[in-house]
Design goal:
Elements: H1 11-27, H2 34-41, H3 45-52, H4 55-78, H5 84-99, H6 107-114, H7 121-143, H8 149-167, H9 174-188
Helix pairs in contact: 1-2, 1-4, 4-5, 4-7, 5-7, 5-9, 6-7, 7-8, 8-9
GO molecular function, one term: DNA binding
Protein name: Transcriptional regulator, TetR family
InterPro entries: Homeodomain-like_sf, HTH_TetR, Tet_transcr_reg_TetR-rel_C_sf
Length: 191
């Protein structure tokens, strides 16, 4: 799947997006208003609307950029890992490191839960990221000679579930446990 490329932004728009991204992730999308974003970014609300058009578009830009950052980071971390099985397992290591700076769980899942309108464009960003992860695992399994769509889904469940278990359940070893379960699944498929 193609990687999402964020648009180039003016300095004011960059500042707005950076501030909004921090506030949306730390406090939640629905609790953060445009007044707070404007005050924190030291711009007027008019500037925000001139650059983004609406809060909906700003939320979508936040998630799109976060998605791009995660994909780029994961791709870069996996690039030098030899072999598809090792890449699959390394994805859990990358996730564990990523979660050190992302203490509120998955921004995509959090946003999806907050945005009740099924037509909100930001929900599509969340959905696309999860499809991308499944396709990544499917591709890696295919490279390993394993054509099992069900196994790709299981790997996504372990990956995503470990984030929830760590964040909501406080299970500090959730990602390591998920990695171990992924290794067991791969072993049962002859890889």
């Amino acid at each position: 799947m193609p990687t999402v490329t964020p648009p180039r932004l003016t300095p004011a728009a960059r500042r707005v997006l950076d501030v909004a991204s921090t506030l949306f992730y730390e406090r939640g999308i629905n609790t953060v208003g445009m007044d707070l974003i404007a005050a924190t970014a030291k711009v007027t609300k008019k500037t925000i609307y001139d650059r983004f058009g609406s809060k909906e578009a700003l939320v979508t830009a936040y998630l799109s950029e976060r998605d791009h950052t995660w994909r780029r980071h994961l791709d870069a971390q996996l690039a030098d890992i030899p072999g598809p099985r090792a890449k699959i397992l390394a994805s859990f290591d990358v996730l564990a490191a990523w979660m050190g700076d992302n203490y509120r769980g998955c921004a995509m899942v959090n946003a999806y839960a907050e945005l009740a309108d099924p037509t909100h464009p930001a929900r599509a960003v969340s959905t696309d990221q999860k499809k991308w992860l499944k396709n990544l695992f499917t591709d890696l399994l295919t490279q390993a000679g394993i054509n099992d769509e069900h196994l790709a889904v299981q790997l996504v469940m372990l990956h995503e579930g470990s984030v929830v278990a760590a964040y909501v359940g406080g299970m500090t070893t959730a990602v390591a446990a998920a990695r171990q379960a992924a290794a067991t699944l791969l072993d049962t498929h002859g890889e």
